[in-house]
Records
---
Amino acid sequence: MTLFLPRLCDAISLLRFENPAERSPGHGSVVLVTITARSVRNTELMRIQNIDERHIQPQYIVMLPTPSTSHVNYDHIYEPAEDSYLLLDTLASSTETKFLEDRFAPATASPLVLEVGTGSGVVLAFVTAHAEIIFGRSDITTIGTDVNFFACEATAETVRVAVTEQARAGKIPGHFVDCINSDLTTALRHGSVDVLIFNPPYVPTEALPEARSNQEALDGSALQAAFERDSHLLALSYAGGAEGMETTDRLLDQLPDVLSKRGVAYVLLCKQNRPEAVLKRVREGPGGWNAKVVGTSGQKAGWERLCILRIWRP
Amino acid sequence: MKLLTLNFLTCARKSCKSSPAAFPLHPKDAELEQVETEMNAVFLRNILPRLEWEAMRSITTELGLPNLPAETPASEDLVEKDGNGDGDGKDDEAAAGPSQIARDLHALLMETCIASGKLVCGNCGHEYAVKEGIANFLLPSHMV
């Protein structure tokens, strides 16, 4: 479980509380606390101490503010959840920032970062706003794609707000260009993407939602039609078909084409996606690609277990 | 959508991907708008090697915008030569302001946006609509 607390002091008081589980919604241990403190210095690292280990495992916490998505309509756009936040935490982790800084050294050409399926835009906004910390350079270009037109609109706004906030704080954010209404990476030029981020529809379902052209999706004017449209758009954001892998498999197949020579991809998987099999497949496939689990959450029984794979060219 | 985005896009059809004619896409009936953004000298310098210069040149010509220079500018062309630097080019960037070329490039790539119109593939002729600044690259299933 990840708790999201609006202010740093809330987090501290929670952590110091004798029995934190009593104050957390539901039952169970808190394994990770993400602080969305908007007023805290970004680079500050702190180690939470004096914690009852039965309830909270101490972790390093990078206090990068989570982008605001208060303007997003969750009737037809995927609401940021544990999976989204795992991506934020992983990309801001010291191992990944080190990897990315080394791979995209400051004097080299501006890396292009693509997020596929941006939804609310919370991940892309985070990466864009905190480029300096994640990549060690702010001169990165970011772009998004989503099959949902509303998500494209929302993403542009989420990024705009996050970037404006960074600039107001005197920091230099990265450079977002656009969110394209498209299927996976199909609109991108081959070999153009340096960093690809994907939080896929990973839930195993009997079938994938049927493909519909955008016009059909947008034409619904009556209440019933709008409801069906919204359900369809939400289904697209989570339903993954067989083993939850139908869409992810298509994305994995596109990686060798769309990624540049220094390309790297971060792909989120859940346990039912059989991450070990995916790792094996990527490593044993043509081209000698590397793959490694670089982030996990929800290791306790009964919880949704997620992991993030980093896949990169040798 | 920003003009810089066109540097990274092609036709979405599989059969067009290997065709040189599918890049760049050609703007048609484009309504442009200018959206001001902060200029960043380091970004401009490091995006230069990523630009498909010929493609960006043809797009600006098709949009009726002032022509880009024939060759990709060198990174030293982005700083004002008459700045306060000592001329050895080392510490000039901080002292000297951005050159006219840098300002033009910034205005073109990062501030000039297609608010609405179409993007046409030079290979198959398919037209992708741009509405409210968002390009729609979804294809009907028979065209994927």
---
Amino acid sequence: MLFDRLQALALLQLGDSAYPAGGFAFSWGIEGLAADGMLANRNELDRVIADQLTRRWATMDRILLRKAFRARNCKAIAEVDRLTEAGTPSAEMRDGSRRAGRALLGVWVKLEGPLSIAYRDQVSADARLGHLPIAQAVVGRDAGFSLDAAELVSGWTLVTGLVSAAVRLGIIGHIEAQQSQAAARGLLGELLADTPGADALPASFTPFIDIAVSRGPLRHVRMFTT
Amino acid sequence: MNRLSLNGTIANSRIAAARVGIGGPVGSGKTALVERLIPALLKRGVDLAVITNDLVTAEDAERIRRSGLIDPARVSAVEAGACPHTVIREDPTLNIEAADELERRFPGVELILLESGGDNLASTFSRDLTDFWMFVIDVAGGDDIPRKRGPGVIRADLLVINKVDLAPHVGVDLARMHQEALGVRDNRPVLLTDCRRGEGIDTVVDLLEREVLFRT
């Protein structure tokens, strides 16, 4: 057998775009970029996905997830969460990340994940906590995932969320969506093959995406949280 | 809902708010119903909060916030990501989080009204999200709506037929529409309202007090 069937099934379950953690309501800039005329077809979508993966996810979210995954206790996890808050300049991006993270954490509280329950108490007492990569680390630990598996699910749910938003906005069709996902799969695989150093600091540089998300509240027509 | 221990005393010091969903097609009068329910419920001393699921804009949330009917802080908006049914059924987590947050911010809130974005006759609420849900249709949408037996019409705890004042103007036999609605729902509640004039609202509130808040 080339892979652990149960682990693979767990990955399919948690990495499913239909996983009930509110992912469908976040476009992470796709809606804003499209509204500003900067995203109108599959090629442009693929570039945005590549930017999201290489300039944000791999250097920011992944690093934070790794730190939270290895944190000794809830207090140490909260420190990484605060670093996420401090390292995300866009208020709308911060708010979206917390809403998505808290939704994911909420599911695992109801599923009685012990770390999720313990960490949710901290999150409830501090409005700055609950960011998505941190919640992904916490539920990954409750799900019994390895760090590799938790990273893979985190990266893949970002890809499916972006592509799904693009389909619902009418930017691409369902076949193009599969082509975009296949391209992103290759890129994500390359990124995952490169292990960040233990002392890696979180950093991102996606100015157009950050601005598109930040302009969200100013738009009259708006279907997504980010 | 109140959580009672075996000896009948309240087990938790904090009682969770009842969550009532309001769904229905676009333009059937869901927001108008919420605007009528708010003052009627407040008048009866119900501690209230509202969540709207806006499909495209924050129009509904802003309309209720600016109405002066309720503290704007008690109105939360949840964007539906272009999927009004997903956010109340397959994946209601964002609405659950919004309701939990309202309960944290307003301890003692008894009832949270949760208005869905406009959808079709197949929309239903997850039982993980709501304790009770109503489906709002209107006479101008056609008197054949109950006969189409959509899951919203059939399965809702309460079916509301709104805009009854328009019936004579759109050629609808209201009595027959009401009877057909009762028929497809096995005589489960069907109430008639004219939200523009506030008619029928007290009957809806009576039912919520009785079936959801257990006050009577």
